[in-house]
Amino acid sequence: MTSPRKSGRQPLADRMYEVLLGQFTDGRWTAGEPVNIGALSRELDVSQTPLREALARLEHTGLVRREALKGYRVAPLLTEFELVKLMDARLVLEPALAFEAARRTTPEFLDEVLKSVDDLARAATSPDTAAFSAYWTIDERFHLLIAAQADNPFLEKAYRSLGGQVQRFRFFAKLGSAGGAPGLAAEEHRVVYDALVAGEADQAATAMRRHIENAKQRVLEDRRTVEAADVPAHR
Fold first, then answer.
1. Is the Cβ–Cβ distance between 64 and 72 less than 8 Å?
2. What is the 3-state secondary structure (H, E, C) of the chain?
3. pTM, full prediction
4. What is d(CA 35, CA 132) in angstroms, rounded to the nearest whole number?
5. Which percentage of the chain shows pLDDT scores above 70?
6. What angle do CA 14, 110, 127 make, to 5 degrees?
7. Nearest by Cα to 98 from 214, 213, 205
8. Residues 10, 136, 85, 101: is their CA dihedral positive or negative?
9. What CA–CA distance (Å, rounded) separates 219 from 102?
10. CB neighbours of 54 closer than 8 A, spacing ≥ 6?
11. Listed residue (111, 116, 161) closest to 134, CA to CA
12. pLDDT grade, residue 230 (50/70/90)?
């Protein structure tokens, strides 16, 4: 008896999901922009069905929104209130993940974290705009490595559920003149790595907390700078 042939639709939808997610990471999309499925279908040479499936998955991340009778639109920038609450949620989760990861380090894990730290430092100082786009992918890899190493599926799932909202946060960070101060973030990642190498769980948690607090402060400063620049000067 032959096994039923698998449908090619789901793998293609998965691939389109990765393609679209990569476009977000590369800065292809801007906040609030409508998603033209027909144009995407022609550009990527696929039918609209797998694209709609991929967009439905992206909707769950918070990166896109579906509007009745209008289709999909890229999510708007986070408000200042949302930015604060998102970073507060990360402050609850990520120090705990770093604490647990520091108690369970392996040579392979530390090698992967070090690679992400070094890659981030190079991307942060590169004048190449493509390298700066890659910066966000590397930054995400660092945090996901630690979340996975914590060996707590509930904490990891809670962190991963923030993924799309963190991408929305990164949309804004690209708008600020400081761009989220990538050089400072790279240095903070190295401090977390050093604590992981030492197996100091409390230090790892503290270093991660400082990193998230600093990132929160930097992006809020960037936001206020951009908003101030948009307000016409009064004579």
1. yes
2. CCCCCCCCHHHHHHHHHHHHHHHHHCCCCCCCCECCHHHHHHHHCCCHHHHHHHHHHHHHHCCEEEECCCEEEECCCCCHHHHHHHHHHHHHHHHHHHHHHHCCCCHHHHHHHHHHHHHHHHHHHCCCHHHHHHHHHHHHHHHHHHHHHCCCHHHHHHHHCCHHHHHHHHHHHHHCCCCCCHHHHHHHHHHHHHHHHHCCHHHHHHHHHHHHHHHHHHHHHHHHHHHHHHCCCCC
3. 0.77
4. 24
5. 83
6. 70
7. 205
8. positive
9. 27
10. 13, 14, 16, 17, 19, 20
11. 116
12. low
What is the tens place of the pLDDT at every residue in 110-153? 999 999 999 999 988 877 766 666 787 889 899 999 999 999 99
Residue type, 29: W
Q: Counting every residue, how long is the chain? A: 235
* Token pair for 69: 């009778």
- Closest among 87, 114, 124, 110 to 209, alpha carbons compared: 87
Residue range 220-226: average pLDDT?
73
